[in-house]
Amino acid sequence: MSQTLSDTPWTEPQVPVPANPPQTAPVDAPALWQRFPQAALAGVDTARAMWSEIVPGGGHWSWRMPRGSAIRFVALEGGPNVSVVLYSALEKLERYNMPDSLKAQHTAHYQAGHVLMSDMGRSMASFTADSLGWHDPLGALLDNERMAARYGERRYEDARNGMYRSGKDGLLIEIGKYGLTRRDLIAPVNLFSKVSVDTQGRFHFAPGHARAGDFVELRFDMDVILAISTAPHALDPNPVYAPKKVGLLAWRCGAAPANDACRAFRPENARALHNSDVLYL
Fold it and tell me: DSSP secondary-structure letter at 69?
């Protein structure tokens, strides 16, 4: 008697189970930094890498960064902008203070050696490496009104990932993940952008300030909440919405040593770093 299909006993197919990824290369932490220009990683101990990301233009993201870690930001295309805000992870009422940071360091822009001070007089982060020598603290954020006037509108419902998103909206989304609201949004630091001020107090944006391969590094001197947006700079005159992608490599660099260049840059920096050190005694 012939056997029908329904009489055939079913056996579960033997599908090989892949081995777990090694701890040195977990599946959720690909070494994207290997795609970055190697010259832009000078001074980074990649053996101590924590993670790496490629953030597309117009994107946004956030992390909780521990004291003694750093992020190397790398321009993967010419003309990027990365708007950065910082909050203490221990007490979110403490956050980056632009007026105090600029006044204490007698500057209107940031470069290697400068620190980002909180409203409690502590160093939240330090500029430990920099290929540009100028990063903008004054140009604020691109908001929806300015974005629509300059570029028009492109909503997610119509364009999906090709939508236009302002820096302000991107950062509000990110800080909202930590219980912060619109009233908590502070003046950002705009990495890779240059804005100068003339004798009449007028702001001037420098197009093409950063080229592909330029880099800047922030070392975190406190446990911080870091949020970023890669939307265009608010003063960028380009009539086309064309934000650029940026690479990030986080690594464990250690806390600022006694002979740290940022401590020696100005007495005010040494005091701010000391105030951060005392917090972790």
Answer: E
Residues 81 and 194: their CA atoms lie apart, in Å, by 10
The DSSP annotation for 171-209 comes to HHHHHHTTT--GGG--PPEEET--EEE-TTS-EEE-TT-
Asked if 209 contacts 193 with a C-beta cutoff of 8 angstroms, the reply is yes
Which residue(s) pair with 82 in the sheet? 191
CA atoms of 62 and 54, how far apart (whole Å): 13
Residues sharing a CB contact under 8 Å with residue 79, sequence separation 6 or more, in sequence order? 192, 207, 208, 209, 210, 244
pLDDT in tens, 145-177: 999 999 999 988 888 888 999 999 999 999 999
> Which tokens sit at 2?
């012939």
User: Which pTM does this prediction carry?
Assistant: 0.90
What is the dihedral angle through the alpha carbons of 256, 23, 53, 187, rounded to the nearest 10 degrees?
A: -40
Give the relative orientation of helices 98-105 and 267-279 as an angle to the nearest 10 degrees: 130
Give the separation between CA 94 and CA 46, rounded to whole angstroms.
Answer: 31
Structure tokens at 35: 């795609």
For the four alpha carbons of 138, 143, 149 and 150, in that order, the dihedral sign comes to positive
